[in-house]
Specification:
Rossmann fold, Alpha-Beta Plaits, 3 domains, 5-stranded parallel β-sheet, 16 strands, 33% helix
Length: 389
């Protein structure tokens, strides 16, 4: 079946190659079945009623109106972990920049004048001001132990660092990935009090906004290097600048520049480069393209930010994929409607996530349009798709 995919940014060709050959793909596609996006902000964009899924070729989905899409039964996918190695490497670079005073030293050298002999004398005289510390033997605190956090922990241990981790919502899979040498903290405050470096890897949610605030900065170990390659809003920048001025913090390194940070010699801000490697862009595009294609073809969901993961092998050629509210008796109403039409269920699966749920139903015989319309009319059903295969 021909599907139409609209791309709002340049999506890696390697990722697009994972879509079926029958798909029409382009940035000017009208009435698309799905949208693939990287950084384009979609909150003010008109999103066609034909759209069934949105795939974000990256981890964060702040640029997508997820709540509005949920109300329409549109599944929003992301690619968690696909850029984890790229971000991890940047964090390690950030630790070195913060503890070895690399940025101030570069500024010092770029401000020198004179011939090479004079330059050499100035460099030798000035380098004593940029003495730093080694990573080996120091302690790294990681707040957020998902794909990036666990990779960072592993690399830090290989560099000879001690690692303390905190994540009250760690998943089973993430726990299995975490090196056994990581000491588990019971609070953020415990991490801040004992660590020479603190790296943040949490999403921006109402509960994580200004996670690092003035009170928590005061509780950090003196001389700590704070790293934020996660989301801008989880750090109160003014509180951190105050911490730098009070010499509570040695450095703040992030990829969210602001004028406030540019004015401080020990605040290092680079562009948001966490996933800006060819490898990460390809990995993200491949992951999200495969997920969207499987959803459009089979109704299976993996790595959605609004609907539950659900996957069911096909038991027949005739499948219904139903996005619905997570309310009592939904399965009963679906089953009753199918039975009343004389349709036999081969297999059925339902998964829920918060206020939303998703149901896959394999039917022994072809499903008439009248039955599909009847299912769509059930109160709480957001969308019904018929997927004959």
């Amino acid at each position: 079946m021909t599907r139409k995919i609209q791309t709002l940014n340049a999506i890696s060709k390697k990722g697009l190659s994972r879509l079926p050959d029958s798909y029409l793909v382009g940035n000017d596609i009208a009435d698309p079945d799905a949208i693939l996006v990287r950084s384009q902000v979609m909150h003010e964009l008109p999103i066609a009623t034909s759209v069934l899924a949105i795939g974000r070729a990256g981890a964060g989905t702040n640029n997508i109106p997820t709540k509005a899409m949920s109300e329409r039964g549109v599944v929003v996918f992301n690619a968690p972990g696909a850029n984890a190695n790229a971000v991890k490497e940047l964090v390690i670079a950030g630790m070195l920049m913060g503890t070895r005073n690399i940025a101030p030293a570069l500024t010092f050298v770029n401000g020198l004048f004179g011939d090479d002999e004079s330059l050499h004398k100035q460099v030798e005289a000035g380098k004593k001001h940029y003495v730093g510390h080694e990573l080996r033997g120091s302690t790294l605190g990681i707040i957020g132990l998902g794909a990036i956090g666990s990779l960072l922990a592993e690399s830090a241990i290989e560099l000879g660092m001690n690692v303390i981790g905190y994540d009250p919502e760690i998943t089973v899979d993430a726990a299995w990935r975490l090196p056994s040498q990581v000491r588990k903290a019971t609070s953020i405050e415990e991490v801040l009090k004992h660590c020479d470096f603190v790296s943040l890897h949490v999403p921006l949610l109402p509960g994580t906004k200004n996670l690092i605030n003035a009170e928590r900065v005061k509780g950090m170990k003196k001389g700590c290097v704070l790293l934020n390659f996660s989301r801008d809003g989880i750090v109160d920048t003014q509180a951190v600048i105050d911490g730098l001025n009070a010499n509570r913090l040695q450095a703040y390194v992030c990829d969210f520049p602001s004028n406030l940070m540019r004015q401080h010699p020990r605040a290092v801000a680079i562009p948001h480069l966490g996933a800006s490697t060819e490898e990460a862009e390809e990995n993200c595009a491949v992951m999200v393209a495969e997920q969207v294609a499987d959803y459009l073809t089979n109704g299976n969901i993996l790595n959605s930010v609004n609907f539950p993961n659900i996957s069911m092998p096909r038991g027949s050629r005739f499948r219904l994929a139903i996005a619905n509210a997570n309310v009592p008796n939904m399965l009963g109403q679906i089953s009753t409607a199918l039975a009343s039409a004389g349709l036999n269920i081969n297999n059925m699966m339902n998964k829920s996530r918060g206020e939303l749920a998703f149901t896959l139903v394999d039917i022994e015989t072809e499903v008439p349009q009248a039955v599909i319309d009847q299912l769509a009319a059930i109160h709480g059903v957001l969308r019904v798709r018929y997927l004959p295969g």
